[in-house]
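In response to the reviewer comment on reproducibility (Comment 2.3), we provide here a single inverse folding case reported in full, input and output, so that an independent group could reproduce the run without further information from us. The structure tokens appear first.
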């Protein structure tokens, strides 16, 4: 069953192909119909801001007409230098007492102090509204299938004593229950289908299935020798 992905979901899966699966950027760019520069930009934005960073950027101007006037900023800085222990709240109170109307807000004073290196920016937790959740409302509504690499097992027949295998995984989006966890030497389309059919026989048929654009799932590069 085909699932139409949002723009953010498509970019997220492209980033995961690069970061988790180790796919070459040039191949990921070709699969998603974008340039290598665009893929590098998605990866950088995801590392800096998480999922919200993959959304389309705003084109609003960096300068806002409601920014504090230069003379007001100067008064804030003078007060802060004269009273290093005064924070934004106290500074706003003193400016109001001195007759400045309207007095700048505490957040405006804080930003002014930060811009002039008069205060150390405090770390702020990302608001919950910034997190994007795609969780389905009930079990069996969506399964997410993926292939994980770099799974090492012991093997005395190799020079290093270890051997890399692949892990075919499937997780129910709502319950987070692992419906597929199959170790294979080669993650071929046939191996994926066999693991998927086993999960269907045990748990039933989900309403939707979500995968990336890996050739094991899409069959874009089907070959009888590798399937």
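Designed residues, in position order:
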């Amino acid at each position: 069953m085909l699932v139409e992905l949002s723009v953010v979901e498509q970019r997220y899966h492209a980033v995961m192909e690069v970061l988790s699966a180790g796919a070459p950027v040039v191949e990921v760019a070709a699969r998603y119909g974008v340039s290598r520069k665009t893929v590098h930009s998605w990866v950088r934005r995801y590392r800096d801001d998480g999922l919200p960073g993959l959304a389309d950027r705003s084109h609003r101007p960096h300068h806002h007409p409601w920014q504090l006037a230069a003379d007001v900023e100067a008064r804030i800085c003078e007060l802060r230098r004269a009273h290093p222990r005064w924070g934004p709240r106290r500074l706003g109170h003193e400016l109001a007492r001195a007759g400045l109307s309207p007095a700048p807000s505490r957040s405006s004073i804080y930003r002014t102090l930060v811009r002039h290196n008069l205060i150390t920016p405090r770390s702020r937790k990302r608001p919950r509204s910034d997190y994007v959740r795609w969780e389905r409302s009930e079990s069996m509504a969506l399964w997410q299938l993926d292939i994980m690499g770099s799974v090492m097992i012991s093997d005395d027949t190799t020079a290093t004593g270890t051997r890399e295998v692949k892990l075919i995984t499937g997780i129910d989006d709502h319950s987070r229950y692992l419906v597929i966890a199959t170790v294979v030497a080669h993650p071929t389309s046939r191996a994926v289908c066999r693991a998927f059919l086993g999960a269907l026989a045990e748990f039933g048929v989900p309403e939707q299935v979500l995968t990336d654009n890996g050739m094991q799932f899409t069959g874009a590069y089907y070959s009888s020798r590798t399937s």
